[in-house]
């Protein structure tokens, strides 16, 4: 397929308000609608096919899955929980913004209603889109993104749900305690579910949260990097799982004064934040003057999710002082454009394909399918900030590599000891 810049055809304003053919619509360019319009349009492009179909109970019917050539032969039905859970975790802060009369606001309201109806279908045993909660252990992984979204946007996505749906969700999440997580990043998936249960007043298992936190801290190797288990992997799992989930789990434990033997969640959260900020300094320096970044490690097909920590700290107004908002926004814009310019990132029906910067199925891992790709939405968390926030309105600044390769002055880099 010939490469072309499909990102840029939606006119700012009317385009974000509603799509006659959402799978084929393209998001606006930064040149015509600004940085925020570009990001909102691209997230809408990712979200609309999944949410519009699942809201009708037709996701399984209409989402034609692509499976990695190296698949381990697992039940492909896990892909639908992956698609919805991962997508909604990244979209939740944006959907949680207050309604307004803008075109973007109308789009958010419409997608939010689709998301709520999707949650209903996800746990209704009579729905065609009842998700695979009780089979493959993969359900533990993606349940954590499913609950992470509810934790990120409780008033928008949890509180409006009917009582029956809430009860069903709690039952399905508690039912996943049957799965014993291996001592790798999976510990944090189990812990995230327990943290969410704690956040809504349900009984939580402190063993599943506390063991995860202790092991992740044991795996810290220094200068902002965390191992995934006993071995170090040069990849982006500190972005996909480690730092975002560690921070948000610790925050819940701190808020709810949860038991933590011989430790203080507030102190651990402060430490984790400092380490995340340091890791974000590395991530920002990875972005080249053209917006590209190193294609390293496992799960490379998760695309822009490699920058989830930068998006998370931007949304939470916790970026380190070394990373001004205008600099981070400009770098993130360049990165998204470098990845998503290829039209074959999406199928003709609008679903994400397996690949990195386009359709590259050979890059799929043995655990990958096209539903797995929706963790890419994690790089859009800053859309949870309103349009008038300084993140969106501050002047764009050159990022580190752009300064470095233009001969401009840029900050020297040193390791840290925390």
TrEMBL record:
InterPro entries found in the cross-reference section: DUF2264_N, TAT_signal, UCP014753
Keyword Signal recorded: yes
Signal peptide limits: 1-25
Keyword field contains Signal: yes
Keywords: Signal
Superkingdom as given in the UniProt entry: Bacteria
One of the Pfam families matching this protein, by short name: DUF2264
Domain DUF2264, residue spans: 35-399
The protein's name: DUF2264 domain-containing protein
Species this protein is from: Massilia arenae
């Amino acid at each position: 397929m010939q490469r072309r810049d499909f990102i840029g055809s939606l006119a700012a304003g009317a385009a974000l308000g509603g799509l006659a053919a959402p799978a084929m619509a393209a998001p606006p360019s930064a040149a015509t609608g600004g940085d925020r319009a570009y990001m909102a349009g691209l997230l809408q492009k990712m979200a609309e096919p999944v949410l519009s179909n699942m809201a009708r109970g037709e996701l399984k019917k209409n989402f034609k899955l692509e499976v990695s050539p190296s698949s381990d032969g697992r039940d492909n039905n896990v892909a639908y929980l992956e698609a919805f859970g991962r997508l909604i975790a990244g979209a939740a802060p944006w959907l949680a913004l207050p309604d307004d009369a803008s075109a973007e606001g109308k789009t958010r309201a419409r997608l939010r209603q689709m998301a709520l109806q999707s949650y209903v279908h996800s746990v209704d045993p009579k729905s065609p889109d009842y998700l695979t909660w009780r089979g493959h252990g993969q359900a533990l992984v993606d349940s954590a993104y499913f609950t992470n979204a509810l934790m990120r946007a409780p008033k928008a996505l949890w509180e409006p749900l009917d009582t029956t749906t809430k009860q069903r969700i709690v039952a399905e999440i508690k039912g996943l305690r049957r799965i014993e997580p291996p001592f790798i990043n999976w510990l944090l998936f189990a812990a995230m579910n327990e943290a969410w249960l704690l956040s809504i007043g349900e009984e939580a298992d402190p063993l599943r949260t506390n063991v995860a936190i202790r092991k992740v801290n044991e795996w810290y190797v220094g200068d902002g990097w965390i191992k995934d288990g006993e071995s170090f992997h040069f990849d982006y799992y500190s972005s996909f799982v480690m730092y975002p989930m560690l921070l948000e789990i610790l925050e819940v434990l701190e808020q709810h004064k949860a038991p933590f033997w011989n430790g203080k969640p507030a102190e651990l959260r402060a430490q984790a934040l400092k380490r995340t900020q340091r890791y974000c300094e590395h991530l920002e320096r990875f972005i080249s003057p053209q917006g590209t970044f190193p294609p390293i490690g496992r799960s490379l097909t998760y695309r822009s999710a490699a920058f989830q920590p930068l998006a998370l700290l931007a949304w939470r107004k916790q970026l380190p002082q070394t990373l001004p908002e205008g600099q981070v926004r400009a770098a993130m814009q360049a990165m998204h454009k470098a990845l998503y310019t290829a039209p074959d990132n999406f199928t003709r029906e609008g679903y994400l394909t397996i690949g990195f910067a386009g359709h590259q199925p050979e890059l799929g891992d043995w655990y990958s399918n096209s539903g797995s790709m929706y963790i890419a939405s994690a790089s859009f968390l800053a859309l949870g900030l309103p349009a008038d926030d300084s993140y969106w309105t501050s002047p764009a600044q050159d990022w580190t590599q752009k300064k470095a390769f233009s001969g401009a002055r840029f900050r020297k880099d040193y390791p840290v000891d925390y």
